[in-house]
């Protein structure tokens, strides 16, 4: 697409083909900042590219910010959890706003994030930091004491999450002290939280000039497995309440622009508990789902729009569809994990692929026959995509997939 | 996009898929070159699902130009149609990789559209395309009408339907005349194995007959070998030569005298025993003779003195069987009855009364509905079942497993029909009347109702009438026996086979694969022991007494391992060329298979009886991995020569054993013997 030199020049931090494709078809100039293994591909396909290996922030961090600044880049967008602090550092230089780095660091540390939320008056569960396994055992006992459990009663579980990993990576549910031994050393320090029984959901909110421009509620059917958008009418009924929560979050974290992806619980009495928030596109391809249901909407382009300091109020207002009412169907995806210990091939069950909602999948033939035992939530082996009009059927369908074998 | 219907009919299912297809094609077409690889997967997957629908290939044919333009062939060999070789299509279509099957299928549809002049292609002329397609069809003839083989089922699963749907579509468009001669050869090869299920063969013959009768189709000089096949179904005798219809034929019969009827009777019998196929007119004649000239029945059944004696001894029973089982819709019952009489098994004291029970058997609601679902309502389900019983008793080696992973159950049925017919009849009674079979495993009873699931995940439908009712029970019991062996060291067949098949299965058990690692284990002892137990030169010239279950490692024509398979060893004897061969039963629907490295399973011409497969002893031993023996009758191990053993081991190492040789084995001291 023809690029408009009067609009912003945007750096994409991290390698995402979908993001590049969206940028290619958008009127902003862009450049991909990615490790040097991407160089050959970018040269071959004429993709603007700056090499950079994202490791921990170090004394060379200024270098990339300077390079981009000299190129005339206006803002950078993080595409993955690992590039969030880089975007903070780079944008604090490009936009001349040192607070952006501190804000990004808050988003990268689950413990700091929780404290900040608590300070802002947002409800969170009981949480604590763990530096070793003894901390975990102590917390498990304390939480269950608080719940007035007696010796021998089954414990309520706790959640342990590595500080700085995205989504379900390094997220474990611990019920007994024995299970604590399965946590590897490299996952400490980590954040421990009490378990909340409730309805879990995520939000994607595009923010411009401190205001929410588009708010999507993503309904989890089962955390780590399945999600669909827009949410069911039952969950959408909370939209007002959820919007107020997000406004509180924006205020607490002092967010002026960008895309945030927080997670919440609603308990049976309608109380909202904050889980965590990420300053990047969600995993599980929620972006693709949104594109599928909102005609002409592209979530990556939407992000470029709200990050770009040169975007005008009118342009932003005109871009976004009306949440829920403009959606032509519900789109959902399901992350497949092999259920058997030894697998030899991929076989999509007939009942799945014959269902009229089934649209496509990204599963590939297994490379190894022995399935590694899953301790944390881990990474799924690929996604299935569904589209259909009835949210009840979508919910049932996604739930049903949990009982099926895709690798046999 | 119209995803809002939850229970669509076939038509709207295809419509829904086609709008997804168009969407996927459009996304691929719009994608810049760098992201095409990420979009093409959805196109392939959607195309695969479209092709699984009836009419799917035709629908895709209309989109083929858009598909090629969108870049679906980019970066692959298929991008340049002129370099493609028709013979290679066979390997692509049988590939376990869905993308390969789909891209090949799409490419064939492209050739079809070009050949028909719908698509003007820059690199390909209509003549070229048409010639190419003919060769593709000829190369894949075996897939056109036959259900997937064990190998295809194992490697392709549901995908195996796609090449069939594609080839049927191509053949309809291209015309069957091009491919008929090869087809005829194939039919004779299968008929020589005398399967019980002949519906697909009858379909093929009908296709040929239709082509021959259609003045629009120019068969040229092809199709001449089809006469016997077509006539055996549609006009085996003088009085029905022009296929007059059953009513008109009955009318002809009414005016015939005895000598004319005798001519009819022998004509039918000859056609039936020539081909194994029975014409509906034959049923009409048999029922007619029953009323008017029953002394001609032995001629009409084509019986030898043995069969004739048997018929005369059990006249009432045989008449009752004819009345109940032989109808124009169930002509194969005649062949089954004839062979049953020839086997002399009615002289077995329990068989005749068991057949009387079968005649009076009240079928359960479930059994009746299964039978009508599979065979239609034209005649009573119990007549269908009786036809199946007669065929199984008459052709014990004609049992096939259909397109299901239930080789164990098919083998058991065949073995009982062959060796213990009254036990088979007992099983049929339990399954058909009671919907339950109880067997015993090491003293504990196992009910087919209580066992949760079998090897097959859904109820098989493509089976003969007996298998249709009994296999689901056997499959669950077999699986349950396996479950009861969980935790035991070694292969569960050691315990399951004798308990499942019958007391005559040897309790001794030998396996040459280490279950935990899959590596070859104790190979030489295994082979020496097998020779000592089965080979007449090493076992004191003792012919086999009972059929024995055995396990083989099936390999494909490139000698690559495909899977483990259950068979029955029937006998070991020299063939007309004095080569010692193993004759065995393979529950697979077509035993004539090429297992690679020169190991070609023969089904006719090497001393085989109908339904038997055979291999030279050494070649058979090279694919064997499990056998049973009587522990009290061990032969002499030491006498087999080094050369003979090396021959067998060579076959193993060049095929399924290639990557199973335990470390260090190849360096073994060559001096040892």
Key attributes of the depicted protein:
heterodimer, A: 408 residues, alpha+beta, Rossmann fold, Dna Ligase, domain 1, four-stranded parallel sheet, globular, B: 673 residues, 4 domains
Q: Could you walk me through the main structural features you see in this protein, from its secondary elements to its overall organization?
A:
The complex is a heterodimer of chains A (408) and B (673). With 408 residues, chain A is of the alpha+beta class. Among the domains of chain A are: 9-102, Rossmann fold (3-Layer(aba) Sandwich), CATH 3.40.50; 127-194, Dna Ligase, domain 1; 332-401, no CATH class. Chain A contains 15 helices and 16 strands. In chain A, the strands form 3 sheets. Chain A has an 8-stranded antiparallel sheet with strand order 13-12-9-10-11-14-16-15. Chain A has a 4-stranded parallel sheet with strand order 3-2-1-4. Chain A is globular, with a radius of gyration of 22 Å. Chain A starts with 8 loop residues before the first strand and ends in a 7-residue tail after the last helix. Chain B is an alpha+beta fold and 673 residues long. Chain B folds into 4 domains: 10-191, no CATH class; 258-346, no CATH class; 348-484, no CATH class; 503-667, no CATH class. In chain B, the strands form 2 sheets. Chain B has a 6-stranded antiparallel sheet, with helices on both faces. The termini of chain B are far apart. Classes of the chains: A alpha+beta (408), B alpha+beta (673). Chain A binds chain B through residues 17-18, 20-21, 24, 41, 44-45, 47, 328-329, 345, 347, 350, 353-354, 356-357, 359-362, 365, 387-390, 393, and chain B through 1, 3-6, 8, 13, 16, 20, 24, 31-35, 38, 41-42, 45-46, 49, 96-97, 157-158.
Brief account:
The complex is a heterodimer of chains A (408) and B (673). Helix content of chain A is 33%, strand content 23%.
SSE layout and pairing:
The complex is a heterodimer of chains A (408) and B (673).
Chain A: E1 9-13, H1 17-24, E2 29-34, H2 39-45, E3 49-51, H3 61-71, E4 75-78, H4 84-94, H5 99-108, H6 110-119, E5 127-130, H7 133-146, E6 158-162, E7 171-174, H8 177-180, E8 190-194, E9 199-208, E10 211-222, E11 226-229, H9 233-236, H10 239-253, E12 258-266, E13 272-278, H11 286-293, H12 299-307, H13 313-319, E14 330-335, H14 350-353, E15 358-361, E16 383-388, H15 391-401
Parallel strand pairs in A: 1-2, 1-4, 2-3
Antiparallel strand pairs in A: 5-8, 6-7, 6-8, 9-10, 9-12, 10-11, 11-14, 12-13, 14-16, 15-16
Helix pairs in contact in A: 3-4, 4-5
Chain B: H1 10-30, H2 36-51, H3 56-70, H4 89-93, H5 98-115, H6 126-139, H7 141-145, H8 150-156, H9 161-174, H10 180-191, H11 199-213, H12 227-234, H13 246-254, H14 258-275, H15 280-292, H16 297-301, H17 305-313, H18 315-325, H19 332-343, H20 351-360, H21 365-375, H22 381-394, H23 407-419, H24 421-434, E1 438-441, E2 444-447, H25 465-484, H26 493-501, E3 508-511, H27 523-534, E4 548-555, E5 561-574, E6 580-585, E7 613-616, H28 617-623, E8 624-629, H29 642-653
């Amino acid at each position: 697409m023809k690029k408009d030199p009067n609009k912003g020049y945007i750096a994409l931090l991290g390698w995402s083909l979908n993001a590049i494709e969206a940028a290619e078809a958008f009127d902003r100039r862009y450049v991909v900042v990615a490790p040097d293994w991407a160089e050959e591909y970018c040269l071959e396909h004429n993709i603007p590219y700056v090499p950079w290996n994202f490791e921990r922030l170090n004394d060379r961090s200024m270098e990339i910010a300077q390079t981009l600044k000299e190129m005339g880049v206006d803002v950078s967008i993080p595409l993955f959890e690992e590039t969030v602090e880089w975007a903070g550092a780079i944008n604090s230089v490009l936009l001349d706003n040192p607070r952006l780095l501190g804000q990004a660091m808050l988003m990268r540390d689950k413990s700091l994030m929780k404290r900040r939320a608590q300070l802002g008056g947002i409800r969170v569960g009981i949480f604590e930091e763990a530096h070793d396994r003894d901390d975990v055992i102590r917390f498990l006992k304390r939480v269950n004491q608080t719940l007035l459990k007696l010796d021998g009663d089954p414990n309520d579980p706790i959640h342990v999450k590595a500080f700085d990993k995205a989504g379900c990576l390094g997220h474990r549910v611990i019920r007994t002290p024995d299970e604590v031994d399965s946590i590897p050393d490299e996952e400490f320090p980590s954040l421990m939280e009490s378990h909340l029984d409730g309805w879990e959901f995520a939000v994607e909110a595009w923010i411009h000039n401190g205001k929410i421009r588009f708010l999507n509620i993503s309904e989890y059917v089962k955390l780590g497995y399945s999600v669909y958008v827009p949410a069911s009418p039952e969950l959408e009924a909370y939209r007002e309440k959820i919007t107020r929560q997000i406004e509180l979050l924006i205020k607490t974290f002092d967010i002026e622009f960008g895309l945030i992806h927080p997670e919440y619980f609603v308990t049976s009495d309608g109380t909202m508990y904050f889980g965590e928030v990420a300053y990047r596109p969600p995993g599980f391809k929620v972006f693709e789902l949104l594109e599928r249901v909102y005609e002409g909407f592209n979530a990556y382009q939407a992000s470029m729009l709200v990050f770009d300091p040169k975007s005008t109020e009118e342009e932003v207002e005109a871009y976004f569809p009306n949440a829920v009412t403009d959606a032509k169907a519900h789109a959902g995806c399901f992350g497949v994990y092999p259920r058997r210990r030894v697998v030899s091939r991929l076989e999509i069950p007939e009942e799945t692929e014959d269902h009229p909602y089934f649209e496509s999948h990204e599963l590939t033939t297994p490379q190894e026959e022995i399935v590694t035992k899953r301790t944390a939530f881990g990474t799924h082996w690929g996604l299935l995509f569904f589209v259909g009009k009835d949210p009840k059927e979508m919910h049932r369908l996604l739930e049903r997939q949990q009982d099926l074998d895709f690798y046999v | 996009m119209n995803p809002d219907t939850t229970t669509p009919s076939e038509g709207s299912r295809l419509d829904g898929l086609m709008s997804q297809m168009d969407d996927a094609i459009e996304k691929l077409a719009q994608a810049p070159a760098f992201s095409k690889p990420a979009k093409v997967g959805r196109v392939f997957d959607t195309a695969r699902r479209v092709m699984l629908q009836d009419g799917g290939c035709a629908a895709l044919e209309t989109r083929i130009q858009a598909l090629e333009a969108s870049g679906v062939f980019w970066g692959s060999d298929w991008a340049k149609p002129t370099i493609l070789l028709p013979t290679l299509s066979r390997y692509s279509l049988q590939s376990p990789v869905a993308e390969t099957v789909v891209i090949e299928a799409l490419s064939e549809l492209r050739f079809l559209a070009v050949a028909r002049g719908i698509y003007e292609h820059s690199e390909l002329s209509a003549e070229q395309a048409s010639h190419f397609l003919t060769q593709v069809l000829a190369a894949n003839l075996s897939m056109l009408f036959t259900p997937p083989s064990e190998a295809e089922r194992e490697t392709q699963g549901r995908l195996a339907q796609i090449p069939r749907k594609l080839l049927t579509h191509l053949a309809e468009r291209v015309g069957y005349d091009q491919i008929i001669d090869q087809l005829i050869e194939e039919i004779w090869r299968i008929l020589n194995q005398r399967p019980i299920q002949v519906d697909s063969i009858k379909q093929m013959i009908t296709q040929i007959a239709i082509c021959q009768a259609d003045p629009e189709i120019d068969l040229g000089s092809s199709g001449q070998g089809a006469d016997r096949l077509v006539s055996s179904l549609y006009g085996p005798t003088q009085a029905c030569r022009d296929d007059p219809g059953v009513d008109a034929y009955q009318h002809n019969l009414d005016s015939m005298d005895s000598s004319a009827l005798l001519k009819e009777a022998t004509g039918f019998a000859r056609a039936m025993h020539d081909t194994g196929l029975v014409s509906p007119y034959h049923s009409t004649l048999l029922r007619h003779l029953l009323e008017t000239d029953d002394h001609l029945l032995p001629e009409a059944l084509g019986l030898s003195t043995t069969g004739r004696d048997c018929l005369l001894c059990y006249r009432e029973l045989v008449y009752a069987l004819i009345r109940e089982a032989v109808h124009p819709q169930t002509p194969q019952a005649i062949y089954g009855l004839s062979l049953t009489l020839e086997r002399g098994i009615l002289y077995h004291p329990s068989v005749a009364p068991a057949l009387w029970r079968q005649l009076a058997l009240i079928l359960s609601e479930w059994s009746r509905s299964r039978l009508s679902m599979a065979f239609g309502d034209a005649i009573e389900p119990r007549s269908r079942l009786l036809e199946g019983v007669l065929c199984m008793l008459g052709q014990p080696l004609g049992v096939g497993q259909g397109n299901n992973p239930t080789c164990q159950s098919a083998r058991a049925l065949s073995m009982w029909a062959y060796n213990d017919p009254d036990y088979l009849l007992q099983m049929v009674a339990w399954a058909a009347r009671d919907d339950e079979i109880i067997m015993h495993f090491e003293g504990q009873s196992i009910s087919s109702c209580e066992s949760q699931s079998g090897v097959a995940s859904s109820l098989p439908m493509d089976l003969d009438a007996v298998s249709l009712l009994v296999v689901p029970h056997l499959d669950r019991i077999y699986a349950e026996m396996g479950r009861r062996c969980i935790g035991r060291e070694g292969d569960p067949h050691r315990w399951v086979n004798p308990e499942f098949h019958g007391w005559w299965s040897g309790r001794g058990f030998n396996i040459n694969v280490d279950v935990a690692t899959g590596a070859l284990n104790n190979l030489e002892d295994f082979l020496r022991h097998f020779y000592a137990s089965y080979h007449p030169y090493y076992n004191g010239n003792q012919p086999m007494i009972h059929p024995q279950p055995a396990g083989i490692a099936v390999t494909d024509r490139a000698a690559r391992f495909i899977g483990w398979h259950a068979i029955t060893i029937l006998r070991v004897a020299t063939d007309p060329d004095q080569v010692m061969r193993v004759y065995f039963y393979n529950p697979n629907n077509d035993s004539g298979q090429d297992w690679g490295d020169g190991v070609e399973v023969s089904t006719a011409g090497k001393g085989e009886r109908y339904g038997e497969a055979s291999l030279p002893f050494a070649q058979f031993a090279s694919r064997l991995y499990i056998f049973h023996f009587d522990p009290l009758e061990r032969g002499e191990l030491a006498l087999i020569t080094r050369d003979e053993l090396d021959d067998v081991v060579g076959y193993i190492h060049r095929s399924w054993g290639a990557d199973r040789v335990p470390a260090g084995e190849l360096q073994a001291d060559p001096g040892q013997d």
